[in-house]
Design brief:
The structure is a single chain. This protein is an alpha+beta fold and 72 residues long. The protein has one domain (2-70). 33% of the residues lie in helices and 35% in strands. The chain is built from 2 helices and 4 strands; from the N terminus they run E-E-E-H-H-E. The chain has helices spanning 32-48, 52-58; strands spanning 2-11, 20-22, 28-29, 61-70. Strands 1, 2, 3 and 4 form a 4-stranded antiparallel beta sheet that branches. A hairpin with an 8-residue loop joins strand 1 and strand 2. The termini are close together.
């Protein structure tokens, strides 16, 4: 059985800062479509919690990937 997993990152354009994995309320999805939809929605929710000043100062942004994995 193939399942799709969401991996969300919080990133910065500040030199030396690495992207960090952000836990998400839902991590497993039935297909890439649902994972991608949720990734954009959750990314927007995260961005709403950040101030304009913080985002502009650190270049804060989110990234995500929906990975297909074979499960037993």
């Amino acid at each position: 059985m193939i399942k799709v997993f969401l991996v969300m990152y919080m990133c910065s354009t500040t030199p030396g800062n690495n992207c960090l994995v952000v836990p998400t309320p839902i991590e497993e999805f039935p297909d890439v479509f649902e994972c991608t939809r949720y990734g954009y929605i959750y990314s927007n929710d995260i961005m709403k919690t950040l101030t304009r000043e913080f985002v502009n100062k650190y270049g804060a942004h989110t990234r995500f990937v929906c990975e297909k994995k074979q499960t037993v």
